[in-house]
Amino acid sequence: MPQKRKENEEVITKKHVRKIIYPIIIGLAVVVYLLQREVDVDLFSIISFTWYSLFWIAVAFLMMIIRDLGYIIRLRILSEGDFSWRQCFNVIMLWEFSSAITPSAIGGTGVAVFFVNREGLSFGRSTAVVMATSFLDELYFIIMFPLLILLVSGSTLFAIGVEPGQEVVSFTNEFFYFATIGYTVKFLFVLLVAYGLFVNPRGLKWMLLWIFRLPFIRKWRYKMHETGTDLINTSRVFKTRSAGFWLKAFAATFFSWTARYWVVNFLLLAFFFNVRVFDFMDHILIFARQLVMWIMMLVSPTPGGSGFAEFVFTRYLGDFIPVGFPVVMALIWRLVSYYPYLFIGAVMLPRWLAGRFSGSRKKESGR
Fold it and tell me: Is 22 exposed, middle or buried (0-12, 13-18, 19+ CB in 10 A)?
């Protein structure tokens, strides 16, 4: 069994389930604490909670369902029908769970290879599928970010709390600084993976091994050797696929990420429709700022971007929320878009592990 596969199994084996559940409990405890500490009950007098509010909250949850459905369809496409819809659902939910408990800069990609492999694909094809999903995700950001800047202008996108006409975009703006770093990393990643997937995988592997001869990163050279080998295997799997194959996979990616970013728009409509009128450009700007938020979260060292995501939300979207409510809305946003995956994963993971490992033990005992 390859070294990387062993490491992934070690992370997600049954004996580690409790270690995964503990941060979930801690995270929920922090949420309850913040709700009790930050909420001023008197502020809620400005909110009219009606059937109209329930409708938009339901639409926000619908966006999350569409988001996951897009991921499921994409996995079905990339597996070329070898996965059933149920298997795709299992992998996506467990993948989201692993992403929710790992730092945003790392994500759940490494463990995702293990999930895909245990559902029946070979290790080489599993690596190919996961690398392709990562490539499509980053490609969405690379394409959408400049388009949205052209639509709403960079000054409007990054100017927070300044008077109209005084917007300035520079590296003194922390949001612009983080977004630039995140976008640069994503752009370089897409270029490297595209070159390796479709042009010269062996050349990219050689380049990685050459770079990792440097003394201060030499200890990771063996991992780069494995990564390069995975890249070559990935290229063999996907290099000959048609343009239609990739267009369908990217379309599923587009709908998934776009649905994710509309969640906040609908939550704001649910709670503040009687406080502020949101016009079309307001919604586009909110959408654009969320995309930038996710780019900035690339630098977050905390599991699922916890803490960092709430901070950026309150600062970056505070222009659209009445004073005193940004923290509350940040928590509501995370309760809709983040914490459900902790619950779903905590329920699914033990059962999934029991089913997959019990099957392996039966095969071994029958030898």
Answer: exposed
